[in-house]
Give the backbone structure.
Amino acid sequence: MKKIFGFIVIASFFASCNSDDSDMISYDNPELSLQIPADFPEVNPYVSLNKPTKYGTELGKKLFSDKRLSADNTISCSSCHIQASAFADHNPRAIGIEGRIGLRNAPPIQNLMFLKFFNWDGSRLQLENQPLVPIITHEEMDSSILEVIGKIKDDASYKELCKKAFGDQEITPDRIYQSIAQFEYTLISANSKYDKVKRTEGQSFTESEAAGYATFQQKCASCHSTELFTDQSFRNIGFPLNTDSNEAGRGRVTGIAADFMSFRVPSLRNIEYTAPYGSFGQFATLKSVLDYFDNGVLEADNLDPIFKNNGNRIPLTELEKENLIAFMKTLSDKEFTGK
Ligand code: HEC
Ligand code: HEC
């Protein structure tokens, strides 16, 4: 009761200084208590400025699947970020409005709260700065934030959610970005078999998964490290090149040659659900990624030393590949994907 009383006092203070002409009903909009999985990397500091709340998250979730965010009302965020695919999709390169093909493969949206950089090249450091990118990108939604607001501002359900989340009905650009980010922060995946084995919740690895894990620690974990299975560094590992002249990997952000065609090491959580693989979907299957490592990657001046010092390859026997794939599939979180 105390809490509710306190809230009403604060809410009516704000209600008296905004121009909202609706009634004075105020809503309790509690912060969500997110379960931070043990041993995950540090939370991105920007999260503390935009903590997910009950209604902020609800608003973000609704926006995430609203096709009116695109110029011709055909594409929502969830057209390319599909829950059953861990919020990635199955196109090699993303397909936006009118069938326009984008530069890169859509990454999964998971555990973003723990990431320091967003996008394949780390072009965004704050998740709240990300939603505008697809909204205005020609090959994605090709709209503008004012056009979006024009379409949704009179929608009664948005007005109500905005009021519940932010205190008044006005739909502003910042509220759109903040609520979408809040929704994304809640997408935490940490209930795979791997997690359950680690937490000793009665499950154990099969022989093949255990052997795969051992190989993984030896040959992969220097980059796919931490509980996110990425060290969040940018590296050129000699994958087949995207010949689109707009692509330069991390070099696109920093402009330096040493970052040319370097990409953020991807998390391998839910990797079973996110084929095809690579920054523009070069590989249809996990097996083809492993065959490529084994056969040898492309030479480059800035090829990662782990490859350069080992004859540009990661040698793997067929059995090791099979076991590695079995291990990677233990990172699948069916609760997360709703499968
Ligand atoms: C046409 C398909 C498409 C649509 C629509 C789309 N995205 Fe994406 N999304 C992508 C692609 C492709 C990337 C990778 C971009 C890059 O690396 O430059 C991406 C990257 C992201 C990332 C970064 C993830 C990470 O791991 O760093 C986030 C977050 C995201 N999108 C959220 C959204 C939101 C929110 C919307 C709706 C406002 C949206 N996307 C709409 C295809 C799409
Ligand atoms: C030197 C660091 C490094 C090592 C070692 C490494 N990887 Fe990667 N891995 C990366 C980077 C960087 C990418 C993204 C490259 C790109 O798209 O150009 C990647 C991509 C992948 C992908 C595709 C992921 C996706 O979402 O598209 C898989 C699968 C993968 N690695 C598995 C492995 C396995 C298994 C091993 C061990 C046999 C391994 N990697 C070793 C850095 C590394």
Confidence is low (pLDDT under 50) at residues 1-22.
